[in-house]
Write a structure and sequence with these properties.
alpha/beta; 7-stranded mixed β-sheet
């Protein structure tokens, strides 16, 4: 459980909060930005703690100090000082299963589409996205964001997926891995359709190249083999219910035990995407989905496609007869995985089917709570757990904490998010890689996007 009060003595360092001993250091140059009078949510293992009445100093996109007092030299003439108004600072969320648009115009989408979707992530406190389907020139988005040419979350990108349409043999699969590595993709995306030997060839080549592979679990492979081969995450809990043949009937306690034991045995991480999957299989409420106000923030073509999904039963996953029992099985499975201490990392699959970038986090939080996960655990999955995942990536910034040395990614909230997830819905400001967006700026940009995609 989180502690509602954890205040440091005057002059104490966040290093003490993190369980480390402070070390002498050279004077720090004046900060670019200082957020003062703020209550910072920090972590001791998986326990959230409030560091009250703190200051956060940021220099060159990194946090250089989090403390109850700041050296006077850290505030210079050009330092931007932001009054936190006794609000709460929570590390930026990671979207572990995002669908980042292409950097070029495509499918009659407006030229602004990529920039708009990237901004919507940021406006809702999503400061890192693991993109799970590569497109032409998509890596340009990552470079542009890193160079400050576009506003968006830090991107880690999978290339075009490995599936039955892109892979024809084990040999070709292994060669394709090398092509993705040479192109600069951060990981490989697994989609349904791969045959077992093709999948094993991808896995072997990925291990040799030192690149992650993640995503779905092809039917011919199964979760046991996927875990044995070292798939880094299983997204959508894909293949779990199929493994115990519990797609169309209630799952049993012993079957849940089997799935949990297998997950723990292989130290497997899962990205549940509960809200999106409920929608996809037909377990959502079509009227409620259609009433989401954020649908006004996507192009008309996208919006109409989503609104037509339920009337047309628009995919092979749609299953009216068994959707309710399948979703209840997924809820029980996530609860069992959480209770057992399995690795859970936050993801929503936005922008996909009623999942608007950034706004989708609120629906996913609701579904994760319904599966028995407390807010503290959900926030951990979206911050620290994701940061731990990316810590193995070469040259990746330190993510997931508001602490010295970490990338300056956080949201400023008026109310305590540990008391209610509603606190996340209207951030007072967002900092992404040291760039600050106040509420007025966020509202103006969102209004522009809404007007651009207004039904004509």
């Amino acid at each position: 459980m989180f502690q509602l009060s954890k205040k440091l003595l005057p002059g104490a360092s966040l290093l003490l909060v993190m369980g480390c001993s402070p070390q002498p250091s050279a004077p720090v140059p004046a900060a670019d930005t200082v957020v003062n009078n703020v209550n910072v949510i920090t972590w001791q293992n998986q326990q959230a703690t409030l560091f009250e009445d703190a200051n956060i100093a940021v220099q060159d996109g990194r946090i250089v100090a989090v403390s109850s007092t700041l050296d006077a030299t850290m505030i210079g003439e050009s330092t931007q000082v932001i009054d936190g108004n006794d609000g709460y600072a929570l590390a930026g969320f990671t979207e572990m299963h995002g669908h980042v648009p292409a950097a070029v115009n495509f499918a009659d989408m407006p030229a602004s589409y990529a920039n708009d979707m990237l901004f919507l992530y940021v406006a809702n406190g999503v400061t890192t996205v693991r993109g799970m389907l590569g497109y032409t020139n998509q890596l340009q988005l990552k470079d542009d964001i890193a160079a400050g040419k576009r506003v968006g979350p830090t991107l880690f990108l999978a290339g075009p997926s490995f599936n039955d349409a892109t892979v024809e043999s084990p040999e070709q699969a292994a060669a394709r891995v090398q092509e993705h590595v040479a192109a600069g993709w951060d990981l490989l995306k697994i989609h349904p359709g791969l045959q077992l030997e093709e999948y094993r060839a991808v896995a072997a080549a990925a291990r040799n190249a030192g690149i992650d592979f993640a995503g779905h679990v092809p039917v011919d492979v199964g979760i046991s083999v996927a875990m044995e081969e070292g798939q880094r995450t299983i997204d959508h809990l894909d293949g779990y219910l199929r493994y115990v043949d519990a797609i169309d009937r209630p799952i049993t306690p012993s079957e849940l035990d089997t799935l949990v034991e297998l997950t723990l045995q292989h130290n497997m991480a899962v990205v549940p995407t509960q809200a999106l999957w409920a929608t996809l299989i037909g377990a959502g409420d079509a009227e409620s989905l259609a009433s989401y106000p954020e649908l006004a923030l996507v192009p008309e073509k996208v919006r109409q496609g989503w609104l037509g999904y339920y009337p047309s039963r628009g995919s092979s996953y749609f299953n009216v007869e068994h959707a309710a029992v399948q979703q209840d099985n997924r809820r029980k499975l996530l609860n069992a995985l959480y209770d057992a201490g399995a690795k859970i990392i936050f993801g929503t699959d936005a922008p996909q089917l009623f999942s608007v970038p950034g706004y989708s986090i609120h629906h996913e939080i609701r579904y994760m709570q319904a599966a028995g996960m407390p807010l503290e655990a959900i926030y951990y999955s979206a911050t620290v757990a994701a940061g731990n995942y990316f810590s193995s990536y070469e040259n990746a910034p330190k993510l997931g904490h508001i602490a010295t040395g970490y990338q300056a990614d956080f949201m400023l909230l008026a109310e305590n998010p540990l008391a209610s997830a509603a606190a996340l819905k209207q951030p007072q400001g967002i900092m992404v890689r040291g760039q600050w967006f106040d509420r007025t700026t966020l509202d103006a940009r969102i209004a522009d996007i809404r007007e651009r995609y207004r039904s004509r």
